[in-house]
Amino acid sequence: MLALWLGASGCVIGPRFTRCPGEGGRGWVELDSEHYTLRTDLPAEQAREAMGELERTRMVLLAGMWPSALRQPMAKLSVYILADWKEFKGLFPRRVQALYHRSETEALIVLSGPPSAWANRYSPFSADSSSRLNHELAHYLSSYVLLRQPLWLSEGLAEYLETAQLTQDGRSAVLGVPNKDATYVAARLLRDSVNSTRGGGVVPGTLAWEPGLNFEEQDRELSAMYAGSWMLVHWLIHERAERFAEFQALLSQGVAPDEALQRALPELQRGKMDETLWEYVRARPPPPRQVVVPPTDTAFVERTLEDAEVHATRSKLAALGASMARQAALVKNRQVLARKELDEALRIDPEGLPALTVKSAEASREERLTLARTAVRAHPDDSGAWLLLGAALEPDEAAQEEREAAYKKALSLDPRSIPATKGLAWLYVTQGRSAEALPLAQWAVSLAPWSPSALDTLALALAGQGRCEEALQLEHRAMGHLREQRSTEQEHVLRERLAKLADGSLCKPAPP
Predict the structure, then answer these.
(1) What Cα–Cα distance (Å) separates residue 264 from each residue in 216, 243, 268?
(2) Which stretches does DSSP call E strand in 151-218?
(3) In the predicted structure, residue 31 carries a pLDDT above the cut 60
(4) Do residues 232 and 156 lie in contact, with contact meaning Cβ atoms separated by under 8 Å?
(5) Domains present along the chain, CATH in parentheses
(6) Of 439, 470, 472, 501, which residue has the fewest beta carbons closer than 10 angstroms?
């Protein structure tokens, strides 16, 4: 079942992906809009329908929950849709139906099937449903508004927004319809808590939720955490709207979650919340909220992907699946698939940017520079090629002017490129040019507010300007995101920075 092999043409055949385009399999298309880059093997008409659904859902969630962010600049979101849900299930953990993933360089969502398959209707007699797209997109959008997010809030908002829908006339959205699955689980948990001799464990457990529950082995605990988070957020939105808004405002300013909770919602920590939520879930649900939705621009540019691009895309998805797997055999299986798909991309187009990027990662210092110059010659209008050159020039002290020019070129080709913005800002920081680094670092953080390295770069730029307290707050934010990612090596670096900021050796306050 886990076997993989190469066919006569070199195309990867196996249980994870269907036939590649070179053997008559489904072709892939790319649709590029202001907010999304969508890659999919759906039929072209369904791909266009998917792009429309993506744009409309974005507008619904922002208008309904964070209208102040409607015009906020954000990095373009990468979306991958596998037409065959079996391929999706073969790559990702059993419990996962869709996923949102973010890294230092991008944010992405992976879905399966046509748009009609993304929503789960609760009843054939009702339009009420929950949408996996809503859930994952809520995670992405909320990261631009709520700069600090405890896990219960992040998942509770996503669960709450799962049921948000556009009305038939397209002019308004309905939010707050109960999430049926979460309601059932939360009601059972709260009832058991209230009736138990100890009691009071649901809300404290939800508030203490930390990353780390295993998708494969702890489904029951995960369901309880999701349900408790949804119940708490639903109650806060409908019963404590002003206090909840104050809590979110504090988080949007970068205040630590525990401090924000104590200042805005101290009642959540007083031990009687299980009884309060039990009464809430037993009563008639409050009426849903209805909000006006601005018109949605669904314009996009469409193109067919080359075979090498298809293999590179499938390799990326397989590698992501490997990073999420827990069992050694599944990790290895996905890693093998990722490598074989990538090898096929390299065979078809040895000078394609995906091929050159991978070769560069595996090459010596001298070879990296040669490969980067090849990339720039072959792809002069691609920001990624200039990024390769900027990175390859980093160790060469005599080539820093060329490195700066490379990052500037990458940024001119893609002004919303997270790595180009961070790369140029970091170059300026290391050269002591904090005044030039500051606006770039601020732009990098606005594009990727979840990025520890972007936050660290901005903190050091501020420190160079004598804005020590702001720098300290940003490093604490960066540390919070690192803890979510469990990166001990980077944590050590940031702890040293925090210590030096605290003792004044890294920053001298600017004179008043």
Answers:
(1) 36, 6, 10
(2) 165-166, 172-175
(3) yes
(4) yes
(5) 29-292 (1.10.390)
(6) 439
